[in-house]
Amino acid sequence: MSGTQLTYYFICHRKLWLFTHSIDMEHNSDDVLYGKHISESTYKREKHEIKIDDIVIDFYDDKNKIIHEIKKSNKMEETHIWQVKYYISVLESKGVSGVKGKIDYPEMRETVDVILTDEDRIKLNDIKTEIKNILDGAIPPVIDKPYCKKCSYYDLCFV
Question: pTM for the whole thing?
């Protein structure tokens, strides 16, 4: 499971299904491009985009064992928190213990600390099973939420 898949699981099962079945519309999204700009122009001294298996961590402070994810807005904060929890679990599975997370909202000048609990580990296993079931099934229905209008997949769902 990738970090993107986990994120899409929380946002929209249809988007998760389309993305995983190689229908990628992110390259058409101004919001995605802007988010990448924020990530690339923030914390310039840090090494960006560390790839481990199917995840890409924005940057990792190995001295303090902190995963940093850089986001433009906290509108989907719960989704961001679960993304970081998943990244912590991936590092743990590689033998790195004591890892914590931090979500950085540079434009808002805010940060959110993230830890992974035993209950979170159980929930992540349940989520992995649910994602597999979604991906093995038929394309999920359109959800029609207010944030759909800004989604890069909007045309596939509504036009």
Answer: 0.84
Longest Cα separation, the chain:
49
What are the residues whose beta carbons fall under 8 Å from the beta carbon of 145, sequence distance 6 or more? 12
Residues 92-112: pLDDT tens digits? Answer: 999 999 999 999 998 899 999
Domain 3-158: give its CATH architecture.
Answer: Alpha-Beta Complex (3.90)
What pLDDT is stored for residue 150 in this prediction? 86
Cβ atoms of 127 and 9 within 8 Å: the answer is: yes
Q: What is the DSSP string of the chain?
A: --HHHHHHHHH-HHHHHHHHTT---GGG-HHHHHHHHHHHHSSTTSPP-EEETTEEESEEETTTTEEEEE-S-STTHHHHHHHHHHHHHHHHHTT--S-EEEEEETTTTEEEEE---HHHHHHHHHHHHHHHHHHHSSPPPP---GGGGG-TTHHHHH-
pLDDT band at 156 (very low <50, low <70, confident <90, very high): confident
Domain range annotation of the chain: 3-158
Average pLDDT of the chain to the nearest whole number = 88
Residues 6 or more apart whose CB falls under 8 angstroms from that of 51 comprise: 57
